[in-house]
Amino acid sequence: MGAPALVALLVFNYLPMAGIILAFKSYDTYDGVLHSPWVGLQNFHFLFSSGDALRVTRNTVVMNTLFIAANLVISIGLALLLNEVRDRAPWLSKLYQSAMFLPFVLSYVVITNFALTFLNADTGIVNHLLHNFGSSGVDWYNAPNWWPLILTVVEVWKGVGFWVIVYLAGIISISPEYYEAAAIDGASRWQQIRQITLPLLVPLIVINVLLSLSHIFNADFGLFFQVTQNSTTLYPTTDVIDTYVYRSLTSIGDVGMAAAAGLYQSFVGFVLVVTANWLVRRRGTDALF
Amino acid sequence: MVTETAPPAKAHRPARHSPPAFNLRRLAIHCGLAIVALGFVTPLIIVLSASFSSESAITDNGYSPLPQRFSATAYRYVLGDPGKIVQAYGVSILVTVTGTIVSLTIMSMLAYTLSRNDYRLRRPLSFYVLFTMIFNGGLVPTYILITQYLHLQNTLLVLVLPYVVTPWYLLLLRTYFSQLPKDIMDAARIDGAGEWRVFTGIVLPLSKPALATVGLFVMLLYWNDWWLGLLYITDDRLAPLQLYLYRILTNIDYAASNSQLAGTTIAIPIQTVRMAVAVLAIGPIVAAFFFIQRFLIRGIALGGLKD
């Protein structure tokens, strides 16, 4: 009964794993994967000596760290605020939550269209506003220094609704008895949040952050490729491992080096996931495996 | 059945720190949240209103939250041209419907076998599924496999097959199935029901909430996908809606060159057409959003679903 799914995994997940040998070969379409000549570690040598590896690794890790931190702080803040009004205005609170969650179901192509609407140098809303204040505006798609901020805003806008749901569910599951006892002792709402809500959320936060950290080597291709419009001038800050592999494969056509970069990413990702899982399990909570 | 007991005393919760019916603090929180919520939907409103504005108004005044010089020209242009967009819509609908049905079917079939405690290969096969979540071959081997060995490029299959099994959703279904009451299934087996009968007659009907949630996530995955199209589709007739929108965004002339109006002197309202296509791409999702969000929210809150 399970055969179709097992076969699908075999073809689309396990066969490509065997293909990691490409990272150690000089791939030639006519020879195929198996008969292309071996080149040892030469692909890796090119990758790391060009300085590209360092740049895309740094961008991937730095941007993901920014996203994790921003999503964490903002989603917990919003979840706390929603929790304050949830009792008395459940309908409004649901409406706020829906609005925050809405971007989560949109694709990055659609979001790229939004970004263009705001950031286009001529017709964009942001430059229009800047003109009104007498500024000459910014040519956003050629201004790499702004993009860590822009991408963080876009990522939070798209993804924070998801985390709000996670943390609000965590807050709701806290037993009301703690708050009742604290209220009797005369604790203010702010004291209750600091002394009860946040400490009790810590286990959930630790697990989520660990799991996010375990994916820190995997960038969201859609965000970095689509939203930046793949603008070459932005590469210093927006080129990540995923976009680098894609470009090496499709436009540069360096299969060997693209495969090497991909394997480097998969391998470090594997180590990170296993480590994170080990840490989560050591805390005595349900781990991934 | 037990008789109804009195509602638990906890049901009427003692008021927290003396909140009056109306207070400034709560009002401030509402204001803050309302502004944030508005911020989240503003881009959608602007795109919607721009799609109903006249091209010249956008060029003159820029975008705004309300349509300027109301005009449906962009839609008339996009929909009146019986070419790419209708085709792209068709491709997206076909791929989403087929993909969701096939994916849900084969994932639940494997999930059911893995949920059975008496299945000998349960542990090794669960690991077989799980391992694909922690290690992958990467883009390059996958790309070469699909284009050089399976020759799936420029087929509709390539838009469906690679996403047909999502290991995370499969394991979620397995967990749900394994929590179903075993007694009913055992009773059915004693009555002579085979595995298929148990699966289709008992397990699936009892699992509607889980199937709905996972089904919706899979649907979103297919409807929103442009990645497979970007990699494997060069034939315009097979481009799904998202890929079509992507091509318009990256190449402003794409809409024009693919139009039957190409070569004529009619000016193409590029800005508003872009917006109209975006509205058509998000329309179905946003319309469905209000019905499906409670499933998605429940799925996230319970399983910590991640994409």
TrEMBL record, chain A:
Membrane association type: Multi-pass membrane protein
Coiled-coil zones: none
Superkingdom assignment: Bacteria
Main location: membrane
Keyword Membrane in record: yes
Keyword Cell membrane: yes
UniProt similarity note: Belongs to the binding-protein-dependent transport system permease family.
Subcellular location: Cell membrane
Xref: InterPro entries: ABC_transporter_permease (IPR051393), MetI-like (IPR000515), MetI-like_sf (IPR035906)
GO CC annotation, single: plasma membrane
BP GO annotations: transmembrane transport
Organism: Kribbella rubisoli
Transmembrane segments: 61-83, 95-119, 156-175, 196-217, 255-280
PROSITE patterns per record: ABC_TM1
Residue intervals of the ABC transmembrane type-1 domain: 57-276
Keywords, comma-separated and alphabetical: Cell membrane, Membrane, Transmembrane, Transmembrane helix, Transport
Protein name: Carbohydrate ABC transporter membrane protein 1 (CUT1 family)
Upper lineage: Bacteria, Bacillati, Actinomycetota, Actinomycetes, Propionibacteriales
UniProtKB/TrEMBL annotation, chain B:
Annotated ABC transmembrane type-1 domain residues: 89-283
Pfam families: BPD_transp_1
GO BP term (any one): transmembrane transport
Subcellular localization(s) per the UniProt record: Cell membrane
Membrane-topology annotation of the record: Multi-pass membrane protein
Domain of life assignment: Bacteria
TM stretches of this protein: 27-52, 88-113, 125-150, 156-177, 198-223, 275-297
Keywords, ordered alphabetically: Cell membrane, Membrane, Transmembrane, Transmembrane helix, Transport
InterPro entries noted in UniProt: MetI-like, MetI-like_sf
GO CC, one annotated term: plasma membrane
Family annotation (PANTHER family): ABC TRANSPORTER PERMEASE PROTEIN MG189-RELATED-RELATED, POLYGALACTURONAN_RHAMNOGALACTURONAN TRANSPORT SYSTEM PERMEASE PROTEIN YTCP
Family indicated by similarity: Belongs to the binding-protein-dependent transport system permease family.
Record-given protein name: Aldouronate transport system permease protein
UniProt lineage: Bacteria, Bacillati, Actinomycetota, Actinomycetes, Propionibacteriales
